[in-house]
Amino acid sequence: MQEDKLIKTEFQIFEEAGKSFNYEEKEIELNLNSGEVLVKVLLSTICGSDLHTIEGKRKEDVPCILGHEAVGEIIRINDRKGFEIGDRVTWTIADSCGKCAACTDYGLPEKCHELFKYGHASINKGSGLNGCYSNIIHIRRGTHLVKVPEVVSNPMAAPANCALATMVNAVSQLKKVPKKVVVQGGGLLGVYACALLEEMGVSEIYCSDINLDRFDIIGKFGAVPVDGRDMQKATAFLLDRLGDGADAIIEVAGVKELIPQGISLLRPGGEYVLVGLVHPDSELNITAEQIIRKCLTVRGVHNYAPWHLEEAIDFLERNHRNFPFGELVSPPFNLENLEEAVMEAKKQHWFRVSVKPKHK
Ligand SMILES: [Zn+2]
Ligand SMILES: [Zn+2]
In a 10 Å sphere around its CB, with 0-12 CB exposed, 13-18 middle and 19+ buried, how is residue 286 labelled? Predict the structure, then answer.
């Protein structure tokens, strides 16, 4: 099962914001411990949080291999039940211990006391192959693997282990199937939310964004697009449409000024799920009284648990024909040209820009 041999690697090292990536190719010797898996990266996608790191808005343990959204194929495996070499898989971005209070009592393995996150760890940890801007990633024992069915293509599957699984988590927080929902933000998280809500049977879904180029896709993912450039106008439009108010609001825009709008749009007893405002510039201009008098529930969602990734892949399998998931992702850039791919991602022409390694 375990064979020690050299593997050919290529990867991009991130050192600090404002500095170019360092592209390296080398052969390394790697031993797998029990439960570990080596995965050949087939396709990765550039997540917004990577752009934040590259722009210096977020700190990582450097030097590191960034990239955490990907799909791959198992090339070496040591003692993993149910998986074998050649399986096409995705994996949780977090490795968790399965024993601490967060993993057991709280039902939040994504908050494990021993948490390790791919694409966010130094190259000095373990084998160093901890990120997806690489041809090989070293998967740890406490990481949940999910097989990707054939009907789910690589571009469809790549963003599943960050963006889609997070949104599965977000919509699963809703206490019952709502009738009317507003999604604040029409980026990748937003359009995934719309599709998930439509599949759940939500009858009215509105998705606001300031980028009108996204409206066509927002419509194809089951929502009425709302022009958010003028917040007052957008609020008036939504209040008119919603009648008594929205049953739920899902925030994925990361813009704190949208929260008072959301509070005003919710009906009594409504639910607010916060996902996007995961940065320090998120002080809110609302009062506790507004939450209390409307009997609102406010829920924060950060990352996800293994069962959300399972559901994300099932959702893609069930809906591969219902929504144009493939249209969200750019044709692949070569890993060697990661800088160009990052420039393309910053332009926001695509919901995700994809990257592919040269070495198979
Ligand atoms: Zn991400
Ligand atoms: Zn744990």
Answer: middle
Q: What is the pLDDT of residues 154-163, one digit of tens each?
A: 999 999 999 9
State in Å: Cα 99 to ligand 1 middle.
25
| DSSP SS3 for 7 | strand
* Span from the CA of 50 to the centroid of ligand 1 (angstroms): 7
Distances (CA, A) of 75 to 80, 86, 89, 306: 13, 6, 11, 22
Whole-angstrom Cα distance, residue 115 to residue 267?
A: 37
- Using a cut of 0.90, tell me whether the model's pTM lies above it: yes
Closest CA to 125 of 36, 40, 60, 64: 64
Q: Which residues surround ligand 1, an ion (CB under 5 A)?
A: 47, 49, 162
Question: How far, in Å, is the centroid of ligand 1 from the Cα of 117?
Answer: 11
Nearest to 189 by CA among 213, 210, 173, 171: 171
Which residue segments constitute the domains of the chain, with CATH numbers given?
6-160+304-356 (3.90.180.10), 174-300 (3.40.50.720)
* Residue 236 alpha carbon to ligand 1 centre in Å: 33
How far does the centroid of ligand 2 lie from the alpha carbon of residue 114, in Å?
6
Number of Cβ atoms within 10 Å of the Cβ of 185: 25
Q: Where are the beta strands (DSSP E) in 171-283?
A: 180-184, 204-209, 224-227, 246-251, 266-274
Q: Which amino acid appears at position 243 of this protein?
A: G
**Measured CA angle at 229 (ends 45, 203), to 5 deg:** 75
> How far apart are the CA of 121 and the centre of ligand 1, in A?
14
Instruction: Tell me the C-alpha distance between 165 and 295, whole Å.
Output: 28
Q: Before 155, cis peptide (omega within 30)?
A: no
For residue 4, pLDDT over 80 is answered with no
pLDDT per residue as tens digits for the range 270-291: 999 999 999 889 999 999 999 9
Q: In angstroms, what CA-CA distances link 120 with 5, 42, 117, 185?
A: 27, 20, 6, 25
